[in-house]
């Protein structure tokens, strides 16, 4: 049975380039999913259970490291290869943690070397969570974005344009090409897709819990599971509860 792999890379040209390289240099490898963000990677990993996951570090919202941390629950046998454009300081962190990585732009020589290491290691278990935690600490909390997080937004409520501080947002919900902003006072429409919003929100406070939902963690009163194992969030300022998609529950470990 051929080995199976998933690729998660938010830049389409880089994603396609890696796909082309793998098909040329590792033709027997079966690519079962090509993901443009961490959210879809979580869902596909839970469904496909591939042998290998090539994860871009810098993805909007859920990062490649966070996806890797969730693998112990979603797909324990999956081996991780980080794809990164980081500088030498970060590369040193990968090497000290003995993690497989590919530096953008990915060279044929490096990809072939990674292939040989993976073939030698499979079907052993993946690196443990302690290694990933140490790597995350070395990279530091600010590595996911070069821009300061957003502080406020403007959204439409009928004919009125409102200025909404991010601290007042309870959650965001995808609404076709736009996004609904929910506060304690009501709802407004933001003319920005949810995926673009993920790039400017502070990941320390806003977490994606579903493909169509981002929640302000300061507004969460409790996290629980129902009888089916589905995650449910109870909110401080709103009567409704929010469903956490099953693959995303792994991001709430320790809460």
Assign the CATH architecture of the largest domain: 3-Layer(aba) Sandwich
Quickly count the domains: 2
Order of helices and strands: EHEHEHHEHEHHEEEEEHEEEEE
Main β-sheet description: 5 strands, parallel
**Would you tell me which CATH topology of the largest domain applies?**
Rossmann fold
- Poorly predicted segments: none
What is the helix tally? 8
Structural notes for this entry:
By secondary structure, the protein is α/β, with parallel strands linked by helices. It folds into two domains: 4-139, Response regulator (Rossmann fold, 3-Layer(aba) Sandwich), CATH 3.40.50; 152-252, Beta Barrel (OB fold (Dihydrolipoamide Acetyltransferase, E2P)), CATH 2.40.50. The chain contains eight helices and 15 strands. The chain has helices at residues 12-25, 38-48, 64-69, 71-74, 88-96, 108-121, 129-139, 194-198, and strands spanning 4-8, 30-35, 52-56, 79-84, 100-103, 152-157, 160-165, 169-175, 178-183, 187-190, 206-210, 213-216, 220-225, 231-235, 241-244. The strands form four sheets. The protein has a five-stranded parallel beta sheet with strand order 2-1-3-4-5, with helices on both faces. A hairpin with a 3-residue loop joins strand 9 and strand 10 (187-190). The radius of gyration is 19 Å and the shape is elongated. The N and C termini lie far apart (39 Å). The model has no long low-confidence stretch (mean pLDDT 86).
């Amino acid at each position: 049975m051929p080995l199976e792999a998933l690729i998660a890379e938010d830049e389409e040209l880089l994603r396609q380039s890696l796909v082309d390289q793998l098909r040329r240099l590792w033709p027997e490898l079966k690519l079962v999913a090509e993901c443009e963000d961490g959210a879809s990677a979580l869902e596909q990993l839970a469904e496909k259970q591939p042998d290998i996951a090539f994860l871009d570090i810098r993805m909007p919202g859920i990062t490649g490291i966070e996806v890797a941390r969730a693998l112990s629950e979603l797909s324990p046998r999956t081996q991780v290869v980080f794809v990164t454009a980081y500088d030498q300081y970060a590369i040193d962190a990968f090497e000290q943690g003995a993690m497989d990585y590919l530096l953008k732009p990915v060279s044929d020589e490096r990809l072939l070397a990674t292939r040989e290491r993976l073939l030698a290691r499979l079907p052993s278990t993946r690196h443990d969570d302690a290694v990933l935690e140490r790597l995350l600490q070395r990279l530091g909390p600010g590595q996911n974005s070069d821009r300061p997080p957003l502080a406020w937004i403007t959204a439409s409520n009928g004919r009125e344009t409102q200025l909404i501080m991010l601290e007042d947002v309870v959650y965001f919900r995808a609404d076709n090409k736009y996004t609904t902003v929910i506060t304690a006072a009501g709802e407004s429409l933001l003319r920005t897709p949810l995926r673009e919003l993920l790039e400017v929100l502070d990941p320390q406070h806003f977490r994606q819990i579903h493909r169509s939902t981002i929640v302000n963690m300061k507004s969460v009163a409790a996290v629980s599971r129902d009888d089916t194992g589905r995650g449910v969030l109870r909110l401080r300022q709103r009567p409704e509860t929010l469903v956490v998609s099953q693959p995303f529950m792994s991001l709430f470990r320790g809460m």
